[in-house]
Write a structure and sequence with these properties.
Layout (H helix, E strand, L loop, with lengths): L2 H4 L10 H24 L5 H21 L3 H17 L5 H18 L3 H20 L11 E9 L9 H7 E12 L4 E10 L5 H9 L7 E5 L8
Antiparallel strand pairs: 1-3, 1-4, 2-3
Helix pairs in contact: 2-3, 2-6, 3-4, 3-5, 3-6, 4-5, 5-6
Length: 228
């Protein structure tokens, strides 16, 4: 790889509209690639994937604004720490919005209001495009559930529901066993994928006949990357 490829395309005072659009566009493209690669092999939420796709563009603008300024760089580093560790925990979408606002404010503070406006419009348009399309969505994501079944303490639960799972689900995996009610009951937690939508009541009714009509809960599975 030649030295020209490894060297920066930026020199002192060389940031112009063309260079900014090139860097911003490349950041959006690379962010989309990273987000899609991540989504392929993980159970992530749409908001996290979209935020992952937009973060490179936000960080790119921040770095362009503070390049060569030690004081601004230290201030931005402190802001990043505050956004991530000092704010109330939020969803990926909320944290992404905070970074977007920070980058736009930083651009204005560095005396580049038009750059801040263009950046906001471009990233905002990309956000709306991602959120209105199927980008980052998992196929059949509404079929993935977390199932909790309460059984008596003396019940041998290993494999007792396998026939029901094979009938109503395409995948079922026990993830947790917890004692409850002073040890007189066990609560089993499974990650399951239903065969089709609308089977929840059938599955719960079948399980009630097997666990002595004790408590059963079925909820949306908490995906990886739901919060930052």
């Amino acid at each position: 790889m030649s030295e020209s490829v490894l060297s920066s395309i930026l020199t002192e005072g060389s940031l112009n509209a063309g260079t900014f659009f090139l860097l911003l566009g490349m950041s959006l493209v690379l962010g989309a690639v990273i987000a899609l690669v991540y989504a392929l092999r993980s159970d992530s939420t749409k908001s996290f994937v979209v935020t992952l796709a937009l973060l490179p563009a936000m960080v790119c603008t921040v770095i362009l604004m503070v390049s060569g300024s030690l004081g601004a760089g230290l201030a931005v580093a402190g802001t990043f720490s505050l956004v991530r560790f000092r704010s109330a925990p939020g969803s990926a979408r909320e944290i992404g919005a905070v970074f977007l606002s920070m980058a736009a404010g930083l651009a204005c503070g560095m005396g580049c209001p038009w750059l801040a406006a263009v950046f906001t419009v471009v990233v905002g348009a990309a956000y709306l495009l991602y959120m209105t399309t199927s980008f980052g969505e998992k196929r059949g994501g509404d079929l993935r559930k977390t199932l909790q079944i309460t059984v008596p303490e003396d019940l041998e639960y290993a494999g007792i529901f396998d026939d029901l799972f094979s009938q109503y689900t395409t995948q079922a995996r026990m993830t947790r066993v917890k004692t409850t009610n002073l040890g007189s009951l066990n609560r089993l937690t499974y990650d399951i994928t239903l065969r089709r939508a609308g089977m929840e009541k059938e599955l719960i009714d079948a399980l009630r006949c097997r666990n002595g009509n004790l408590e059963i809960s079925l909820a949306e599975r908490a995906a990886e990357g739901g919060e930052l």
